[in-house]
């Protein structure tokens, strides 16, 4: 199992296990040359695999409307969430983001043959070394519902209703085990705001208590 990413407070990372690909364009003479890296960064409306760890397990769904008001003004495209391996940026139009039919997000990074980071990622995609794409985000609003898993244990379903900021999208070598710290804080806040009802005395006990008071 891969080591969790060390993320700033409030930020979360998820992976989509659809490998990135290369978009090619035709050139004179009948050949082809790379035009862009393309990938699927965010999938909406689909349950994730179980996340979290012992004592706190959850599955997650991103609502198809979660990205409707997301700040994407300065999203970076990087390799393995490493800002030192910068591939593109929405601010400079070297990273293009488009919504997918399910409400998620696809990315396109125009290929720059003079950029050594682009050259390295190109070879890794050509060899099939990359397992998928990942995204780094901050959730603004979510909802939690408790379920039971197949073994009868407790499992929480988190629905991400609003994503406040999308920080980066990136091709990744392998899925990093997600750090559930931010999700755990959200879950704890939800439980504090929605405390479980405390059971009252059973009717027979209440009747006995009232009868005892009447005799005093």
Q: Topology, please?
A:
Layout: E1 12-16, E2 21-26, E3 32-42, E4 51-53, E5 56-62, E6 76-79, E7 82-89, E8 96-99, E9 105-110, H1 116-127, E10 132-148, E11 154-172, H2 181-193, H3 203-215
Parallel strand pairs: 5-11, 6-11
Antiparallel strand pairs: 1-10, 2-3, 3-9, 4-5, 6-7, 8-9, 10-11
Structural write-up:
This protein is an alpha+beta fold and 216 residues long. The protein has one domain (12-195). The chain has helices at residues 116-127, 181-193, 203-215; strands spanning 12-16, 21-26, 32-42, 51-53, 56-62, 76-79, 82-89, 96-99, 105-110, 132-148, 154-172. The model has no long low-confidence stretch (mean pLDDT 86).
Sum this structure up briefly.
With 216 residues, this protein is α+β, with helices and mostly antiparallel strands.
Q: Give the tally of β-strands.
A: 11
Which spans of ≥5 residues are poorly predicted at pLDDT below 50?
none
State the order of secondary-structure elements, H for helix, E for strand. EEEEEEEEEHEEHH
The profile of the biggest β sheet is: 7 strands, mixed
Instruction: Estimate the helix proportion, in percent.
Output: 10-25%
Termini, distance in Å?
67 Å
Q: How many domains, as an integer?
A: 1
Query: What Rg is obtained from the alpha carbons, in whole angstroms?
Result: 24 Å
SS-derived structural category = alpha+beta
- Shape verdict: elongated
Compute the number of helices: 3
Beta-strand content estimate: 35-45%
* Average pLDDT reading: 86
